[in-house]
């Protein structure tokens, strides 16, 4: 299995809009993602295992859909702010936003709708079912989640992770001949087991996303809870409740983690000879170097200078 300290390295061409992909480390520890891919006709199977809690968001390319499930029962995550477990699965047709609570492991089935209709015409029901599926859907169906997880991970156990070749002993047609009907079953199941978004959760999610945009736009400036309340149009207690429900953190704790993660990425990519750590720190809203170094070491287990020097 391949591994990297940068999640961007795991994005496959032809799946996500690279410019929209973003991620942040939200919990202490050394971040790594272990990943692999298997290509089978119009399908792409993938697995990603994260060593710490993170938040990931990205837009899918047109005509690309994904069905995703936790690869084990210890993974705890939020899908667009809704808590999930090993009995849930996601159908993603436009964008994805997942945050994890500690280490997590996911496997997914990516479908190219054009290729699927062209190369596997005997199951047009899959494309038809996709057309009826909402852009963002969370299904609660433990039996189907187990079937999907078992089918994908068993193929990886026979294959060479990190390649696009099908596993030895499993002809390509037999793989998508099994998984395409399984995808159809999941799309039918999601109509009966979809988790409806409550008005309260939708309002909370909208408030958090509004605040996130404000945080990024003002990343180098002091941002207070009152600022965020004004932006979201909420009282402080309501906004704190919204953040804790959607992200698991208070607004200001979440802001600090986003900024630390941004500084970490910047130092990883920086020119070792020309970059000054104080400049990176202030770019991400840290004005007291002692505090910055303390929080940074606490989050990533190393000093900013060690990250910079690699």
Mean pLDDT: 87
What's the number of structural domains? 2
CATH topology of the largest domain: Jelly Rolls
Q: What can be said about the biggest beta sheet? A: 7 strands, antiparallel
Just name the CATH architecture of the largest domain: Sandwich
Helix content: 40-55%
Supply the helix-strand structural class.
alpha+beta
Low-confidence stretches: 159-169
Distance between the termini: 23 Å
What's the shape? globular
Beta-strand percent range? 15-25%
Alpha carbon gyration radius: 21 Å
Number of strands: 12
Detailed description of the structure:
The structure is a single chain. The protein is globular. By secondary structure, the chain is α+β, with helices and mostly antiparallel strands. The chain starts with a strand and ends with a helix. It is built from 11 helices and 12 strands. It folds into 2 domains: about 190 residues, Jelly Rolls; about 110 residues, Orthogonal Bundle (Arc Repressor Mutant, subunit A), CATH 1.10.10.60. α2 packs parallel to α4, α3 packs antiparallel against α4 and α5 packs across α7. The longest helix has 22 residues.
How would you summarize this macromolecular structure in one to three sentences?
The chain has 310 residues and is of the alpha+beta class.
Features:
7-stranded antiparallel beta sheet, Jelly Rolls, 11 helices, alpha+beta, Arc Repressor Mutant, subunit A, 310 residues, globular, 5-stranded antiparallel beta sheet
